[in-house]
Predict the 3D structure of the following.
Amino acid sequence: MPALSTINNSGLYVFLFGLFITIILYLLNVKGSIFIGIILTAIIGIPFGVTTTTNAMGFREAVSQLPQTFGVIFTSEGLPSLFSDITKLPLVIITIFAFSMSDTFDTIGTFIGTGIRTGIFSKEDSKALENKPGFSSKMDKALFADATATSIGAIFGTSNTTTYVESAAGIGAGGRTGLTSVVTSICFILSAFFAKYISAIPNQATAPALIIVGFLMIASFTDIKWDDIDQAIPAFFAAAFMALSYSISYGIATGFIFHCLVQTVRGKAKETHPIIWIVSGLFILNFVLLAVL
């Protein structure tokens, strides 16, 4: 969660060095400045004890554990176990709903934020996603690919294989087409054989890259009509809560709720799409249940 870091912390020193060096390289228009910054920061972290392979898992060790997780979702210990106790059924349904909403809106928010920035997704794609059925836009196809990857990841028993905002690092490095994803997937395959060393790269080394990307992405704020209070209030609270709650989906939820509130007060409630009202109500219910349970 966002908070002030302890000053007497070797990890903080490594991060600050990485941030400064990455910014300098980026300003000098050095090719691969973000990647170089990550590598240099990771190397500097070695004498500070920040970069270490102590808790890193190797490729063979990961593969050896695969039989324990692959296909477990279909066994009695998987999905059926969620519905074995009828008394806990409401809690199970709410949990499934919460994860579904979080994953869906995290993915959509990331796609829109990064895709429009790169030019892969246009405003027409966003409208087609909302108004046209089937795979009528690039975003429909991207969401289908994300859902497929999430399902396959669940079968293998891995962590959620969905879209992450860290993917924006590729945008900062100049990635603008689908070929970027292809190259990244190849690199992931190769990195699996060196997992013990690659996973040793600390968060302090990758954080500067995300800050640079965040700086680039915030330029999209210029598309918001800040002189239009109907747009400005929901947009502000959505952005603020994304940062404060460390969740894209919670930020979007807050934006939906404040949009409905503003439209109601301004006498424009009928202009809001019914789906927005339904989703906002579900988000409010989710927040209430999270506070109670």
